[in-house]
Specification:
The structure is a homodimer of 252-residue chains. By secondary structure, chain A is mostly helical. Chain A has two domains: 70 residues, Arc Repressor Mutant, subunit A; 149 residues, GntR ligand-binding domain-like (Four Helix Bundle (Hemerythrin (Met), subunit A)). In chain A, 65% of the residues lie in helices and 3% in strands. The first copy, chain A, is built from eleven helices and two strands, in the order ααααββααααααα. In chain A, strands 1-2 form a two-stranded antiparallel sheet. In chain A, helix 2 packs across helix 4, helix 2 crosses helix 5 and helix 6 runs antiparallel to helix 11. Chain A is elongated and about 60 Å long. The termini of chain A are far apart. The relative contact order of chain A is 0.10. At the A-B interface, helix 4, helix 6 and helix 9 of A face helix 3, helix 5 and helix 8 of B. Chain A binds a DNA duplex (30 and 30 nucleotides) through helix 4.
Chain lengths: 252, 252
DNA sequence: TTCTCCTTATTACTCCGACTTAATAGGCGC
DNA sequence: GCGCCTATTAAGTCGGAGTAATAAGGAGAA
């Protein structure tokens, strides 16, 4: 059964290719990732009961302790709930912390559900324009400078390069920080990261059909001018166009 | 040191008062709660390094396993990060999952930070009106019936009674479900729950200064009529007034 | 001197096996 | 048939031993 503890010293080169998991990721993290994706992708339906700790940990060929730590992570994100005698069961979707960065990453690890992507864009279309409005009202000179520099960098390198995408992230991060609202920063950053997963699909499917610089420039101008209404409107356009791009690239 | 394992069978009545922790809560959950509140309240500053596993678990008089599981929970919520040799350090606030229900609960366990409460209300003022707009456009007959019944129940019992507050929750939950947007439901429910903690302060400080029924009725009428703009505006009023009430009740 | 490489010591990570607690199912008495 | 009580089962907790990774300090070379 457990051929880990005994063969750990001698037979590692034969059976397992050096490291049984991705480097830098701990064992319980890898298990949590594996189970998390399985649950979020629907492999385990809400209400399902996982195999008992001993069985499952033996099946995964890890110790009970490592398995339990992974379960604690999933429980912390609202995916499962464990009770003595009853076992560990998958909670209904509404109990999941859908906005948790890890949960979002797991949701986008496989084929992301189209309806959920639309939900996220709807939420984004609500929050981002409001964030731009706050930024226009509260930004200071330093943040404005970062936005300007990032915009220039986006012009130099295009979004096709990694440097260009980094500049795009810097631009949006600067806007978020300018809102002076930590809750909004965390929320928007999570959703933004998740949405950018889908962008990779987009990049693969077709070349960028449109130049995003002018739209970004409009947002910057509005924020620089301190015009909340204009910033709101300009960011709304940006989000809508991003959704359009993603929709074209998504299956069916 | 460990008077837990040996006195568990005979001397429990003498030393420990039956259960050393809150009933229904597991040991690692209790530890996570304890450390979580300590971190969120600022007792440990970002960048601080916690004592080593062995030291801290001995100080808390629990096994290393239970302590580690608690740390995994905190790490899952972005509060801490553990690395070999480096120890477990508190992450900067921007890495925290501030919208996680547990993190919010820990933040509101002590004296909630005034600026953070304002941030949450700002976010709420952005999301809730948009949710009401979606609800007005998408609600079905069943959800409308629930809103109507809840509103009637709120009229019968006031918000001073538990039944009245339950009806209030049902009313808002029905609106959220009608948005057909899981992400919005989860987000709004988390923030709403957190904000309602502060409402308890409010209730204690003074009697409710104003009758909330007419404002709720306006929201219901707009949703029933399918008028998105009106629903947005009516909900905006509701959130703003709730913020006003909370501000009066908050210290300084 | 300064940089790089390597050693070392510290710390988290993992595993194991036993015991404890709690909740359910089924039997027992009423 | 109803409620209590015991037996079973699975999670919870514990202690200790051994492993792996990394930050830090020292040795050697440029």
């Amino acid at each position: 059964m457990t051929d880990r503890g005994d063969t750990g010293a001698d037979g590692k080169a034969a059976a397992t290719p050096r490291t049984p998991r991705g480097t830098g990721r701990r064992l319980h993290g890898a298990i949590a990732h594996k189970l998390g994706t399985a649950i979020v992708s629907g492999e385990y339906a809400p209400g399902d009961i996982l195999s008992s700790e001993v069985d499952f940990s033996e099946a995964l060929d890890v110790s009970r302790g490592a398995y339990r730590e992974a379960i604690q992570v999933l429980a912390a994100k609202g995916l499962v709930e464990s009770r003595p005698k009853a076992g560990t069961r998958v909670l209904p979707r509404l109990r999941w912390n859908l906005l948790d960065p890890d949960v979002l990453a797991w949701a986008f690890a496989g084929e992301p559900d189209k309806g959920f992507v639309r939900n996220l864009f709807e939420l984004r279309a609500v929050v981002e324009p409001a964030a731009a409005r706050f930024a226009a009202e509260r930004r200071d000179r330093e943040e404005l400078r970062i936005m300007k520099d990032s915009l220039a960098a986006m012009r130099r390198h295009t979004l096709a390069t990694e440097a260009g995408r980094a500049a795009d992230r810097d631009f949006h991060d600067a806007i978020l920080r300018a809102t002076r609202n930590e809750a909004m920063i965390v929320l928007s950053a999570s959703i933004g990261a998740a949405v950018s997963w889908t962008t990779q699909y987009k990049q693969r499917a077709r070349a960028l059909p449109r130049n995003p610089i002018p739209d970004h420039a409009k947002v910057y101008d509005a924020i620089a001018a301190g015009d909340g209404d204009a910033a709101d409107a300009a960011m709304r356009v940006l989000v809508d166009l991003a959704f359009e791009d993603t929709r074209f690239a998504m299956p069916e």
